[in-house]
Write a structure and sequence with these properties.
By secondary structure, this protein is mainly α. It has one domain. It is 44% helix and 0% strand. It contains six helices and no strands. The longest helix is centred in the middle third of the chain and has 18 residues. The two termini are 30 Å apart. GO terms for molecular function: monooxygenase activity. InterPro entries: Fatty_acid_hydroxylase (IPR006694), Sterol_Desaturase_Related (IPR050307). This is Methylsterol monooxygenase 1-1.
Length: 149
């Protein structure tokens, strides 16, 4: 993971974490090599199982819509979080950006079960339990974009 490898984080992935409070257009805001690394899983599936070009484009659009949704900062009524039990959603992924660039939690990009299995969701779960302000309450960020306790 690029968060645990100092060189890769500082030179590549740090660009994506310039926004503590992500918004939809910050999802693709990344270093070019980060885009290649993170988009490779979305490209590997269709490469392993050849499909019709329309199916490929639908898959590609779905993956981009998912990235926009998790970086939007909103839980829309039609958000997959409401219908898919282990879906990441905006609140969950926003916490990853909110805690800082060297975040050691909430790595999942689609489903939260991997974070649960590896224990990397404990900070988020703890913050929810104690009622600490999380990214879903954006009034915790003042106009200078600094954290307010």
């Amino acid at each position: 993971m690029v968060h645990n490898w100092d060189w890769a984080y500082e030179k590549i992935h740090k660009v994506h974490h310039e926004y503590e409070t992500p918004f939809a257009l910050s999802a693709p805001y990344s270093h070019w090599s980060d885009v290649l690394i993170l988009s490779s899983p979305a490209l590997v599936g269709p490469a392993m199982v050849p499909c019709h070009i329309i199916t490929y484009w639908l898959w590609f659009i779905l993956r981009h819509m998912e990235a926009l949704d998790t970086h939007s900062g909103y839980e829309f009524p039609w958000s997959p979080t409401k219908y898919i039990p282990f879906y990441v959603g905006a609140k969950y992924h926003d916490y990853h950006h909110y805690v800082g660039g060297r975040s050691k939690c909430n790595f999942s990009t689609v489903f939260t079960y991997c974070d649960y299995l590896y224990g990397t969701n404990k900070g988020y779960q703890h913050a929810k339990q104690i009622g600490k302000k999380t990214p879903s309450t954006y009034n915790s960020i003042d106009e200078n974009h600094s954290k307010v306790d």
